[in-house]
Amino acid sequence: MTLFFWSQRIERAKQLTGTYPFASEILNFYQEIAAFQKELYESLVTHNSTQKQNAYKAIASTNFEPTFVLSWFPRLLELVRRVGPVKVAQTADALAQKDSAQWKNLIESCWNHQDFAGGESDSAEPFLARALLQPCAELLAAQTDPSWPGYEGYICPFCNHKPQMGVLRPEGYGARRSLVCSLCLTEWSCRRILCPSCEEDSSDRLTVYTGDQFEHVRIEACETCKAYIKTIDLTKNGLAVPIVDEIATSPLDLWARAEGYQKLTFNLLGL
Ligand SMILES: [Zn+2]
Ligand SMILES: [Zn+2]
What we know:
Blueprint: H1 4-19, H2 24-46, H3 50-57, H4 67-70, H5 73-83, H6 86-96, H7 100-111, H8 125-142, E1 163-171, E2 174-181, E3 187-189, E4 206-210, E5 217-222, E6 227-233, H9 242-248, H10 250-258, E7 262-263
Parallel strand pairs: 1-6, 6-7
Antiparallel strand pairs: 1-2, 2-3, 4-5, 5-6
The chain binds zinc ion (2 copies).
């Protein structure tokens, strides 16, 4: 199994730091988180002991027993306390004072979808839980059939979490739309005209906004439920790495919020 995609994300974040200086702080933080996640992912792949196998396999079951994953949580908290934005670092500090039973509750809540609803988040706890769980969920998803033939829903077919973003990929003379899961990063096909929040499919209720600053990233907003999602258009920029470009284009989120829309799912950094 290749670890190339982790390096690709970190490299893209570095590159965008130069392109979008306003996002350099958040992109530097993302690089630290991604490096941590890469190490955790590598550990899950390469250490093949029964204990570790069971630990991450259990994530997909209803009896979630995150022993091995939890053993990495103190390292994540220490990292975030050291290099995270103030609010997130304070949350990590508070979490570090709690015991492992409380950590386990938090991780299980994240796995059970109680995370990242739209609107302003009061706490960075869900972000920290997701940063820890994401590599495990991504590895599990990578071990399944990635194509999900025939599936066109708006919830992840692997882990049932909401999508983080949309992606447009070249197909024929046009583009094919897919959605990317906010937890396991599974990508699946989705109809072009569909709100992934309320399933609105009337084209006059779904609006696309683009700006000059980010020609390959657009806001797709629903006038029925007022949710929005960002879509990375790879037909316009084939070098984009969706999870990173989504984070780097935070001014679009500020604009969408000012227009009265709520993000369907906060990204890994809680934006
Ligand atoms: Zn998923
Ligand atoms: Zn909607």
